[in-house]
Amino acid sequence: MIDPLVQNIAALEQVQRTAIDLALQFGPKLFVAILILLAGYFVGRWVGRAMESFLVKLELDVTVRILLVRLARLLVLGLFGVMALQNLGIELLPLIAGLGVAGAGLALAMQGVLSNVAAGFTIIFTRPFKVGEYISIVGEEGQVEAISLFNTVLSHPDLSRVVIPNRKIAGEILHNYGQVRQVNLSVGVAYDTDLGAALARIDALLAANPHVLRDPAPLVQVATLADSSISIGIRPWVSVDAFGTAAGEINKAVVESFRAGGIAIPFPQREVRLLGQG
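Now predict its structure.
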C-alpha cells in the first residue's frame, strides 16, 4: 500500500512540474504582453498631450478638448490591448462575438444611460451653451459649471447645484444668457416730477456703479403711466456673478439719490367717497 505522504509529495511535484512548464510556455508571452500594455499606456499619454496642444490652438471648448483627448488615449490603449491579446495567442473573433452579444443585452438594460450619453455628445459638439454661461432650461436656471457625457451641472443663484440629465436638455427650448444678464428694475415718481432730472440722476448712479456694464449701455426710460405714479424702467446689463448684488445696490442708490434731490416716490392712493343713502 502506497504511503499517503508519498502520494502527497508526488502530487506536489506534479503541480510544480506543471507550473514550471506553463511558466516556460506562457511566461515570455505574458511578459511581452505586459510590456505592450505599458508601452500603450505611455504612448496614449503622449498622444493625449500632443492632441491637447493641437486642440488648444484651435480654441475648442474645454469640455470638447477633454472628451477628444480621453477618446484618443482609450483608442491607443485599446489598440495595444489587442496586440497584447494576439501575443498571448487568444482568438479575437470569438471574443468580439461574445462582446457583441453582451453589448446588445447591456444596451437594452441601459437605455436611459445611453440616451444621456447620446444627448451628451450632441450638447458637446453642437455647443448650444458653454461652461461659464448662464442658462435657463426645463424649469431650471443657473451658471453652467460642468458638462459631461451623462449630465450637465448648474450653479444655482442660491449657492446650490442643479444636476440635469442630458436627455432632459436635448430638444428642449433653451434660454442662454451668456456671460451677462439684464437687471429689470423700476421706480415710480409723482406726475409733477421733473422727468429729465429724475432720468439724469438714474443715469449718473448707474455710471457710478462698478457692476454696471458700459457696453451694452443701460436702458433708462419711462415705462408705464400708472394710476398714482409714472413708472421709470431701469434695465442695466451686468455680469452673471454680479446680478444679485447689482440689483440691491441700484435700488438703494435710487432711493438715496431721489431723497437728496427732493424727488418723491409716491405710494398707491385711493380716493374713497361715501355716498349718503337717499
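The longest strand covers residues 140-147.
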